Queue: 4 jobs
Job 1
Amino acid sequence: MKKILILGAGTAGSMMANKLYKALNPELWKITIVDKDENHYYQPGYLFIPFGVYQPEDVVKPKKDFLPKGVNFVISEVAKIKPENNQVILRDGSLLQYDVLVVATGTVPVPEETEGLKGELWYKDIFDFYTFEGTTALAKKLETWEGGNLVINLAETIIKCPVAPLEFAFLADAYFEEKGMRDKVNITYVTPNSGAFTKPKATAMLNQLLEEKNITVIPDFYLMQVDNARKVLVSYDEKEVPFDLLVSVPVNKGDKAIINSNLGDEDGLGFIPTDKYTLQSKQFENMFIIGDATNVPASKAGSVAHFEAEILIENILSYINGQPLEAKFDGHANCFIETGHGKATLIDFNYDTEPLPGKFPFAGVGPMGLLKVNRANHMGKLAFKWVYWHMLITGKHIPISTHMSMAGKITD
């Protein structure tokens, strides 16, 4: 019997386990998935916990509930990958052999990478919201915080869900307004980017929104250290930004096992060199990478993992059958962006096409508006939680085009 091994049982890994189990003969192929955590976290929900929209229990479920019974689920930490031997070494020293390896190990925030970020003020006046521990601690802080300088800072540009820091700023504006204390809070968005986002049309629209909401943007700020004693951010060119409450998006890196196995790309962040179209490893033909673990120039977002999975299942089956890898991922991503007060906007783009205005998913009727703030987009964002638990990670078909469509988009 041949073996498929999947590393990581998060969004991408769970999707691939379900898709592969449905596609392959269980008498010929054994599928094993490895993850160190038995709980599955709905990470898009982390954004809403600090503002009381979701409670912690809304975003946690057992991983085993979303994996096929015929898939072997191993709860263990991966220590090292030895692709030259088709082996994975677990933390307890045991070995797993494979014929095909799918790496879905994701990315994690590493506050230790920045001097002073995880210092004496960590989880007192400095918080992240990209972890379950961070977002729940921040929720408790906001309940009693009396105001001052709220700073949202991106330590790096390569992060999971690139729009989430902006969403946090918009939701914070609405939250404090609804509490009747917006005049007591100065919100500052500090980013290494030259604007609110990386794409021109979206950046122009989002910059305008930030200005309307009286949120100050400090661009081109490359964080060097956090001075806990003085409560200031310090950039490499010695600019300083004071804070009373810092919401940080730390440096993101690939899984330790990727770094320990020397499989990461040359920038040292631990993301695996991946063919951006086929999602096959550039080094090992029987290794495929999906989601945040790749170094492809697409957003590290759940929608990207979804569209990648549709491509990857085709290419893995082609590889198994000795056929060319003809399915191509176009970098498709779409992201709802919460803007506060029960409204949101939506962006849809790929490797070659920036976010454009228009209607989504159906030309002329929408009902969602691209680069437009409306209620329908917000309802779409909230509805995604049900879609995530019941369709996405279980590998069911979702009626949205895998490849980005120009239908409904305005190009002028």
Note: Residues 69 and 92 are 24 Å apart (CA to CA).
Job 2
Amino acid sequence: MSQTATLERLAASHRGEPLLSVRDLRTQFYTADGIVKAVDKVSFDLYPGQTLGIVGESGGGKSQTALSIMRLIPDPPGKIAGGQILFEGRDLLKMSDEQIRRVRGKEIAMIFQDPMTSLNPVLTINRQISEALQLHLGMDRGQARNRSIELLEMVGIPSAKTRIDDYPHQFSGGMRQRVMIAMALSCHPKLLIADEPTTALDVTVQAQILDLIRSLAKEFGTATILITHNLGVVAGMCDDIIVLYAGRVAEQATAGDLFGDPAHPYTMGLLRSVPRLDEVRKERLVPIEGLPPDLIDLPDNCAFNPRCIYAADRCRAEKPSLVEVGPNDHRAACWFPRGEGR
């Protein structure tokens, strides 16, 4: 991609034109026990060149939001039950299977959570990277192979010319994740979704992978959605952060506002349970008591109220809306943000 194209993409963010607009997205799974509301009326905007973090505990709807954007929800039992996913003004939910295949991989790419299950064990790395290059960019086999080697070198795979013909099981976990990043960025996508890209990797490799994603996204002007359960991961990576709980947005803010002035008790609990390296520890870490709720037939109230230290009668009776609680469009779905008015 030329530097001019990259700068044009970044400049678009200052014109107020979202690259991706998700509106009231609802994704459900139909089971014998009932309807699982995995994603329940989630809305957000993502601008060119921006990095958005989506955080929360397991089962909060993070991965299902990403899979919904990619149109990879298995049907049955899953279904995108409502909402809009507008990518450059085009509603991805109204596209045919053939149309979404042209977008997926070329314009929107995803780094999946577990590279060992995402990579095909019986195909060489060359075959798996080259396939997208041939399909989306029209390269022949030789061109695709040369470009694949360049991509492996770009993500830090040593001896790329010889390792290009290896199979996934011949790579370590960190190297497989680098291969996944190379595949995702092979066609210079406008949007990169990284779903728990550092899961099961040691701390040193985690830092390397995050630095790699950040530097490559910056180089290509790519908008990024970083999904994780670890607030420490998004602290230095993201411009804005969305906190999901029980399939709904609990809080959304800029990274600075979220860490400096958290409003939702759930966000405050997440922060209290994360060790701080920038200050002397004075108190023990405080975990959030209890477990996330069952997403089948959730009651029409605040889903976090059984675990909330500020819960009152209103929390148990009514579901709060996402409202503004601070500057820079800082919003939270809580009747008593920061415990105020309790």
Note: DSSP finds 13 helices and twelve strands in the chain.
Job 3
Amino acid sequence: MIRLKDTKHPNTAEFLDSAIRVAEYYGFSPLDDMRISKEKDAKIRAATSRAESEITFSRRDERGYISAAKRAAAAARTLRQGGGTNNNFLAWRVSGGQGSVPQQTLELHVVGSSSAIAEAILLVVANAIAEEAGLRARTLSINNIGSFESSNRYVRDVGLYLRKHIESISPTLRPRAVEDPLGTLVQLIEKGHPAAPRAPQSMEYLTEEERRKFWELLEYLESFGLAYELSPQVLGSRDFWAHSLYELSMLDEETGGRLAFATGGRYDPLATRFTGAHTPAAMIAINVEIRGKARTPRRAPLPPAIYFAHLGPEARRRSLTVLESLRHAEIPVYQSLLYDKIGEQMVRARELGVPYILIMGYKEAMENTILVREVATNSQEAIPMDDISNYLKRRRMGAAKVEARV
């Protein structure tokens, strides 16, 4: 959990206001404002209710994420029923967090995309929020538990390992070691049990395809310059998570240890339970203590005049760096990093009616340039990436706009 004394914010409301501004810059919108149609299918309603009761929780914080996960899944189901071609969305939600200390939780969700860009966006935005708050000496820890099939082998070996060390486990925890090996291992890790570091590691059980997809996420982080460590001790329930899990922590200068303030991962299994159909989804939850004013006024930013489009995987990897530099320069832009095809992005740009489009393809990514296209004349110019913010400001293409209160 983030302690406000470690930030530049005097109260919880100011922290949340700053965090939400960062999230909304990247295209996140309020989850609670999204349209959700009432489910008419009795079988799906019954399956959703049953799914929640059957979940095995390996971590205490997982229970607190159920409400938002159900709402995100319902919003995804509503989009799917609407018959649109784009069912991807980014959403944020503030809720009361779990734990003995009063706290607020800012959840960020990316729903509808199975690409590693979903987790990359979440980690870049969470890191930017922490940076804006003034949190220093941050550490990003990442693990991967693979699909349900590959993690079956992992959990089987964890069970065998725990049996060999059953005498060192407390008597109250021994029954769980038989029924829920993964949850037991999570508890041993939390307690600092000496057997935990030598337990089997989930990344060793990944298939070649799962390794390739995981490496794709790490490539995004390396391209952005976000340092990380691979940590086999970042785990969670298989009813909740699949593939990537991650944790952001900071150095506790008083104790020299780490304070975790954000956790998350890909929760495809849970979203699929709640929608009745395969639904890719990822999230990160940022916890902050409640101190002073806690409610922040809602603000509606005016629409940007620029749309950022990418073409190809290399340009997509470089896009996160470009967007973060534009955010620091206070130049608002639309983006659709969840789209795979340039045609889809051009359609979206036309729908938004922006006068300017920034385009980065493979050639531009290799040459460190960005094309700036004026929609009215269809003229375009290649601008060095390092100069793009100054170029847009000199021509008043991306002047920061005053936000209106709602």
Note: The first strand starts at residue 29 and ends at 30.
Job 4
Amino acid sequence: MKRIVILGAGTGGTIMANKLRKALEPEEWEITIVDKGKKHFYQPGFLFIPFGIYTKYDVIKPKANFIPPGVNFIIDKIERIEPGKNRVHLADGQVLNYDFLIVSTGVQTDPSETPGLQGELWNKEVFQFYTLEGAVNLANFFKTWKGGDLILNIADMPIKCPVAPLEFVMLADWFFREKGIRQNVNIKLVTPLPAAFTKPLSAKVLGEILDKKNIEVVTDFYIERVDNENRKIISYDEKEVPFDCLVSVPIHKGADFLAKSGGLADDMNFVKVDKHTLQSVVYPNVFALGDATNLPTSKAGSVVHFSAEILFENILCAIEDRSLTGEFDGHANCYIESGDGKGILIDFNYEVEPLPGKFPLPGLGPFGLLRETKVNHYGKLIFRWMYWHIILKGKEMPIEALMSMAGKEVVNP
């Protein structure tokens, strides 16, 4: 009996458990998936909770609902990986041996990395929405808040869903207009980036939309500390931004156990992989998926889904001792909620930045690329149903894993 161990029962791990169990004979292959918790969170839904669009009950389901029969599901913390000996140590003392290992333990926020962030104002006037608890606390705060300086600060990159901060400030603009107090709310996006987004064309388009919504973008701001007493954030070069409500996107890191796992990960605990094959650059029988990796692309759900197709192909190649044929191109697409029942869609990869056009069908769409449309908003909402019923279960989607140029309008620099 040969063994595959999957670490993490989030999006990537669950997809791989479903795909591999269907493809491999149970008599020959034992598949085990390990996770520290029982609840599966639809993380894109956290964004909607502060604005009353979703509640916490809309984003939680039992993980066991999505683990297929014939897969061992262990709920325990992971202590460390011993990749040189092909084994995983769990917190309860159990040791799991493997022939192939898939690391898909995602990413976690670490507010403690920024001095003062978890000070006396934490969860009172300083919040984050990248956790369920933080999103719920912020929702409760917004119910009675009368206005002031609302600052969304990104501590550093990379972060989960890089467009989420943009969505947050645009939804805040809509939310406070609906409440009739937008004139009392000064919204700023404070970012370490030189623009609203990382890609030049989309940064220009998104920056113009933010400007129309009267949302100020403060660029090149690397936060050093939060001054709770004077209610302001201070950068390393001593720039200051005052706040009445601070919404932080804290430092992101890979899982803690990866720091003591035989050199698999970099200094931020992200697994070092070949960006095309998703194979560890150190140990050939170890692969990684999604936010847990150091891939030079967005840490977004779409990347997990698209790259899972490639990883599945390459795991089968490795099992059969063949050269790895799957080549991931960094494909990502993201619906960007912009308020007022509208949204923007971007589609890109390692080499091609987001371009205008129609998606997925040339000339027909129905979704508009780099355009603010109502159809894009509905696409964002429909995605939650697709996530629970199709994507997690490893079923085929009508969108190819590799990015297509069909429907895209090439823009000359």
Note: The mean pLDDT is 96.
